[in-house]
Amino acid sequence: MLIKKLLPLVSANGLEKNSQFFRYLASGIPELTKDRYPVKRGNFTFLDSNHLNFFKSVLGTQRVLIDPADCESFNIDWIRSVRGYSSCVLKPKSTEEVSKILSYCNENKIAVCPQGGNTGLVGGSVPVFDEVVLCTSLMNQIHSINDNSGVIVCQAGCILETLDEALANHGLMMPLDLGAKGSCQIGGNVSTNAGGLRLLRYGNLHGNVLGVEAVKADGQVIDLLSTLKKDNTGYHLKHLFIGSEGSLGVVTKVAVQCPPKPKAVNLAFLGLPSFENILKVMKQAKRDLAEIMASCEMIDDSTLDVCTGNLKLTSPIPNYPFYMLIETHGSNSEHDQEKLNMFLKDVLESQLVLDGTVTDEPTKMKNIWDLRERITEGLVLDGYVFKYDVSLPIENFYSLVPVMRERLAGNPEVVRVSGYGHLGDGNVHFQVSCRQFSQDILKKVEPFIYEYTSKLRGSVSAEHGIGFRKPKYIHYSKTPESIAVMKQLKSLFDPNGILNPYKVLPE
Question: What strands, in cross-sheet order, belong to the sheet with 89-90?
Fold first, then answer.
């Protein structure tokens, strides 16, 4: 059942024939979260037949999953870092059904774990204990696409790639692009304020979401579904739900501002000798490519190896210590190619870049982007991966990697220590992959990585949220006063604490 649940993610990224990945999926499930991490179950009600009968009266029997085999895949994240033991998965199709479910759960103090595509990496979308899973996958209707304003209104369960395909027919695109676009849902994207590959050009979801509809813990529907670019009428309440990870309310609908689909797209893949050169090339790219620069990504050689080695993908250039991907979006192909070619000529002649290739051919661009987007898939084939998502000042973007390599040197369980990420916005993805989960390695990495990030005035979470894995470390990025206000908001919106407990906020 776990493999069946993950097939959409696998198929979206072309892994159907990767037998090694399927062996990974079938190799067993991790120990329960409660046994791996020190966490105590809250004072919530245990489900009984009366509760299940109510859920069935709202959804019918087919949309209330209680068979352990059916519930299994909803209890585990796809990188196998956390696992709960929920015995009930609810699959509403409408806001009204969500409202009835939450109202009942609030009255009966039943904990609820909202879940979209379950592609998160910090344990925010799976139960910690036996919380009821509220799955939004059947809430997948597109309500409208306005060609004039460029606004899409849809339900929270719409898959990101599906939205992008629908918008393409209107000459538009989603401002957000993620490696998991074939599985992740827009409600989860909004609830975690996902960043992604296009943030450099199009900004984050706080700037692109015009409105949301959300349901509070008591079942009250909050209609903030504005489609206006400017609406300066008091508090911007929508921002409370963007990035709150389902802890303040369940997002059921969203309105997103969508940019025009570019007429000209070009992609450069570069090989470089050092991170110092990467900084120089990025600075020159911002100057020379300015208005057409859409993405600027960095990959180190060890990270690329998980794609070329574990996933058997092919790199278009030989091996180098570092790589950059630079994508441009514009309206005039001849103009953009001229600018990009001049930029490449300069960085090659100055030996900032050792080798590179540029293309505007869709298949070749997809093959290159696979080297970036499928990294996590390759990493999990190493065994177990400790993944971290932090923001650092650009000068220190890569500094975590050599520091942690020295800190973990000599540990026979460590397979690789590597880094990659969104160079354009300072978001580095750092990981330690090992043969299996190890408390010793965990203690070496945490809280050191967050202390290190804090000393550099970085953020302990750049785009994946706080989830289950980071609440006790949030103080490295938020002041006590800020955390106190967050807790006050939680008490106001969810006084019984039923929404996504054990997540986001420290105890």
Answer: 64-65, 89-90, 132-135, 112-115
List, edge to edge, every strand of the sheet that includes 427-434. 355-359, 264-272, 322-330, 293-300, 414-422, 427-434, 384-391
What's the pTM value of the predicted model, to 2 decimals?
0.92
CB-based contact 421:427 (threshold 8 Å): yes
Distances (CA, A) of 188 to 86, 215, 248, 435, 460: 20, 14, 13, 30, 20
The residue among 251, 90, 241, 227 whose CA lies nearest residue 156 is: 251
CA atoms 171, 174, 115, 74: torsion sign:
positive
Q: By CB neighbour count within 10 A (0-12 exposed, 13-18 middle, 19+ buried), where does 507 fall? A: exposed
DSSP, collapsed to helix, strand or coil, labels residue 300 as strand
| Cα(302)–Cα(417) distance, integer angstroms | 8
Provide the residue-wise pLDDT of the chain in tens; the chain has 507 residues. 444 444 444 444 444 334 444 445 545 678 999 999 999 999 999 999 999 999 999 999 999 999 999 999 999 998 889 999 999 999 999 999 999 999 999 999 999 999 999 999 999 999 999 999 999 999 999 999 999 999 999 999 999 999 999 999 999 999 999 989 999 999 999 999 999 999 999 999 999 999 999 999 999 999 999 999 999 999 999 999 999 999 999 999 999 999 999 999 999 999 999 999 999 999 999 999 999 999 999 999 999 999 999 999 999 999 999 999 999 999 999 999 999 999 999 999 999 999 999 999 999 999 999 999 999 999 999 999 999 999 999 999 999 999 999 999 999 999 999 999 999 899 999 999 999 999 999 999 999 999 999 999 999 999 889 999 999 999 999 999 999 999 999 999 999 999 999 999 998
Q: Which one, of 483, 405, 507, 499, lies nearest residue 448 by Cα?
A: 405
Pairing of strands 384-391, 427-434: antiparallel
Give the C-alpha separation, 353 to 335, whole Å: 23
Who's near 287: CB < 8 A, 6+ residues apart? none
**Token pair 């790199």 in the structure block, residue:** 315
Phi then psi dihedrals of residue 381, to 5 deg: -75, -10
Q: Measured between alpha carbons, how far is 436 from 30 in angstroms, rounded to an integer?
A: 10
Amino acid at 424: G
Give me the residue label for tokens 């540029």.
Answer: 358
Four-CA torsion 489, 463, 37, 483, nearest 10 degrees = -30
DSSP single-letter state for residue 116: S
* Residue 500 backbone phi and psi in degrees, to 5: 45, 55
CA distance 88 to 229: 40
Measured CA to CA, the distance from residue 173 to residue 167 in angstroms comes to 5
